[in-house]
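Deliverable D5.2: sample structural annotation.
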Amino acid sequence: MSQQTDEPAATAQASSAPTAAAPQPRRLDALRRRLPHSTFGRHALIVVVALVAVVLVLELTSPFRNSQFATMSYYAIAAAGLTVLTGLNGQISLGHGALMAVGAYTTGLLLGDDGTGLPLLLVMLVAAVVTAVVGAVVGAAAARLHGPYLAGATLALAVAVPGLAIYFDHTLGGEQGLPVASPDVPDWFSDAVYFLSANETPTAKYLAYLGWGTLLLVLLLLANLMAGRTGRVWRAVRDDEVAAELAGIRLGRVRVLAFVVSAVCAGLAGSVLGIVVRLAAPSGFTIVLSLGLLTAVVVGGLGSLVGALLGSALLVFLPPAVTNIGIGAGLDGTQAAQLAPFVYGVVLVLVILLAPSGAVGVVKQIWNRSRTNRREPSTRRTG
């Protein structure tokens, strides 16, 4: 009798286990139904949420942090473009610092010394177009190159472009650089920020808003481009060029398009850099900048826009933190400043050895493992 009474109880317990775990998938399904069905709508919703987070962060942080976030914005814009070129299309570029220089110098020439030139948004648009033209020329020349040959060609670009500023010193300012006028804070923008947060809007905060507004717009456009047919074509060329060519894809045209899109991002990043730093000088666009962008993309995760953001944040916030730790450990200012690049190099080597897919890849692996572990108990119960 006891065995007969236990069997129905065990059966009822086993049948109730899946229903106990059912509400969570149902909630997820209900949440997914409320999200926009189109890809652009989902990405736009994410950008709106990110914009709210940006407003909260900028209003709750100090002017020094605002300037750091402004610096992160133009690094992230350039890194997002490099993600498209290297992560999706497989072209290695060491010349994005030179493309940023094109955008910065174009912005300085159009704004003028006193800021009485063209409107700011028009200046940034022209800087992006000019850099796109340069990117099309370079991309067409490099379309037939692969691997180290392409890297060498873009490295030559990174070395040559800052030298042009020294050669045309009367127009571009030479080694001293070309001053870039800082834009005034519009009254309507200052009033809107004061209405929302009851805070004033100094120039540093306005530049951070300008940089992050540009960054979010770039991320929205790139995310939709990567999710569409163009992104699939880029991945196909990256994964197998022969198969892509047999499928009817024109490799040269695809590579040039990826280079142009990446160059537009670099031009916008250079424009924001010139406005934030208020100077376009050859010393700011050396090969170190290009290597830093490539490092940020690798550390964050190749082919991921979120990885570009993470790598840019590491590029901006890690060196000051390491410098402060070095000073706290008893090092002088020079030694502490030299410690920062060393630590950044160690982080890069560790990421390459231990996590080749970058920070985003590690997070995805942990997430997939956790989902697998959650599914296994329910599978055992149903079995």
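Annotation notes: The domain at 36-283 is CATH 1.10.3470 (ABC transporter involved in vitamin B12 uptake, BtuC). Residues 39 and 228 are 9 Å apart (CA to CA).
The annotation will be released with the project's public dataset once the embargo ends.
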